[in-house]
């Protein structure tokens, strides 16, 4: 909240990347969307961007469908009358030229639905504590400094843990130790025998 208030009153240009919609709604005055090697600038906060983009895509789809109907009608006419009477053949040629002009000026693209990753957290049932026990763990990569020295803690079903720290502090390394992808120099990581780690 302090950061939102501070940045909302910031008197200089601020470019930022954020995953928090609330944060962007409070702080941002413009949203830039990067897609297909192009940048689209939207005025307003995140909610305004979503609304404007939805309207823009709906208009684009209407235009796309209208153009596709026109293209289908022209192709159908050319196929039926391209080899007919002289008058009809001339009309077919005229429509072919119209179609070529439409294609050269650029037809409206179909709106692509963005890939949405769905996260699933199946019910894991009940496990008695500790679900995951870290006992006297020391770890370093070969030839590197000690990242962890004599770590001792336990994780239960009601634990909600956030790892924070600068790049290179060992956040990912700790997760790999907990998952069993890395082996500590000393100590042990002991999961409950029935623990299944999601991916």
Note the topology.
Elements: H1 2-8, H2 21-27, E1 30-35, E2 38-43, H3 46-81, H4 86-105, E3 132-139, E4 148-155, H5 171-179, E5 186-191
Antiparallel strand pairs: 1-2, 3-4, 3-5
Helix pairs in contact: 3-4
Compose a concise summary of this entry.
This protein has 199 residues and is an alpha+beta fold. The protein has helices at residues 2-8, 21-27, 46-81, 86-105, 171-179; strands at residues 30-35, 38-43, 132-139, 148-155, 186-191.
Description:
By secondary structure, the protein is an alpha+beta fold. Among the domains are: 2-46, no CATH class; 132-191, Rossmann fold. The protein is built from five helices and five strands; from the N terminus they run ααββααββαβ. Strands 4-3-5 form a three-stranded antiparallel β-sheet, with no helix packed on it. Strands 1-2 form a two-stranded antiparallel ribbon. β3 (132-139) and β4 (148-155) form a beta hairpin. The longest helix has 36 residues, at 46-81.
């Amino acid at each position: 909240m302090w950061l939102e208030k501070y940045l909302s009153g910031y008197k200089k240009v601020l470019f930022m990347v954020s995953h928090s919609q609330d944060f962007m709604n409070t702080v941002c005055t413009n949203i830039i969307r990067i897609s297909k090697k192009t940048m689209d600038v939207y005025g307003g906060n995140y909610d305004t961007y979503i609304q404007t983009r939805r309207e823009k895509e709906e208009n684009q789809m209407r235009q796309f469908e209208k153009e596709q109907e026109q293209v289908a009608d022209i192709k159908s006419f050319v196929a039926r009358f391209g080899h007919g009477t002289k008058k009809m053949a001339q009309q077919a040629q005229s429509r072919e030229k119209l179609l070529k002009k439409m294609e050269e000026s650029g037809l409206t693209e179909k709106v692509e639905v963005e890939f949405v990753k769905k996260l699933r957290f199946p019910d894991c049932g009940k496990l008695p504590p500790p679900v995951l026990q870290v006992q006297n763990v020391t770890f370093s990569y070969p030839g590197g400094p000690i990242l962890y020295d004599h770590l001792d803690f336990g994780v239960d079903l009601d634990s909600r843990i956030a790892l924070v720290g600068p790049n290179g502090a060992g956040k990912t390394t700790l997760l790999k130790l907990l998952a069993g992808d890395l082996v500590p120099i000393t100590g042990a990581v002991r999961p409950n025998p029935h623990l299944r780690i999601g991916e």
